[in-house]
Amino acid sequence: MLRYIALIISIVLQLVAVVIALRLTKVTKYKISWILISLGFVFMAFRYLIDLFQYMNRPRLEELVVLNDWISVLISIFIASGVIIIPEIFNYMKRAEYARKIAEKNVLNAIIETEERERKRFAKDLHDGLGPLLSTVKMSVSALMKNEKDESNLEIIKNTDHIINEAIKSIKEISNNLSPHVLTNFGLASAVKNFTDKINETKVVEIKYESNMFNQRFSTNIEVVLYRTICELVNNSLQHSKAKNININLISNDTLIDLLYEDNGQGFDVQRIQQNDISGSGLRNMISRVESVNGTYKFESKLKYGFKADISINYTKRHGKA
């Protein structure tokens, strides 16, 4: 009776194994190694069915005993062959994972390129569309100012002229922030210097910036990613860290661009921010951008001990030194 129960349990378990094996065969795109192992499970279940038949129908048939022995041989051959060539499944999985990562990078690069293209379009529309309209209004106001004799009206016109000047200035700044012409025309190092100089003019923070890349150009994606990353890091230091001093080193050698960033702000828990991005620091967005150009990153920070970022990117120079 115990042998009968054991055979029933074995058959049920083997049938479950067969179902799982067949599903995995489909998942692994019918790779020969898993097909062989699946066949081994199928014949193993069949062998247990023969054992059950022999147990229930005594005396035992010699032909079934011989058949059972040969089925055992087939089981051994199928499973042994499957195990020998099973690394093919792992190689397939590695290739699939690699293809997935490449696809993710391509999608992210497409998003970044589309985002920059839209920034440029919007900046151009502001500069070439709204800018000339305001300039025309300014000319009309200036003409009124020359001919106006009433002091009260003249004061209103002067105030209007001042507001128009501020609006034109704001449009230029917004347009430049959306798509810096310095980045497009003169490259990453010059664009970062232009950006840090403007920040230094505010006297809110002192930025020390050094670079050996002023005569070098790189692929558009790399320049855009690093420029946006630096802008985001500086913005974080001003808004969240309350830093008073920032050091930026942008250095290139034969194969790498190294960005070393450091501030003396209040610091934060890097691991928690990276996992949740709960403070709006944009670290996860920066990481995605850096990874999209095959870059590596390292962030260090502690409460009251400032923040450090070390970002390295492999590059292909688009132009040599001028």
Low-confidence stretches: 317-322
Whole-number count of domains: 3
Give the strand tally.
5
User: Treating each run of at least 4 consecutive H or I residues as one helix, how many helices?
Assistant: 10
CATH topology of the largest domain: Heat Shock Protein 90
Helix content: 55-70%
How is the biggest beta sheet arranged?
Answer: 5 strands, mixed
Alpha-carbon Rg, integer: 35 Å
Describe the protein's architecture and organization.
- There is one protein chain.
- The chain has 10 helices and 5 strands.
- It has 322 residues and is α+β, with helices and mostly antiparallel strands.
- It has 3 domains: 2-85, no CATH class; 118-178; 181-314, Histidine kinase-like ATPase, C-terminal domain (Heat Shock Protein 90).
- It has a 5-stranded mixed sheet, covered by helices on one side.
- α1 (2-27) packs antiparallel against α2.
- The chain starts with a helix and ends in an 8-residue tail after the last strand.
- The model is unreliable at 317-322 (pLDDT under 50).
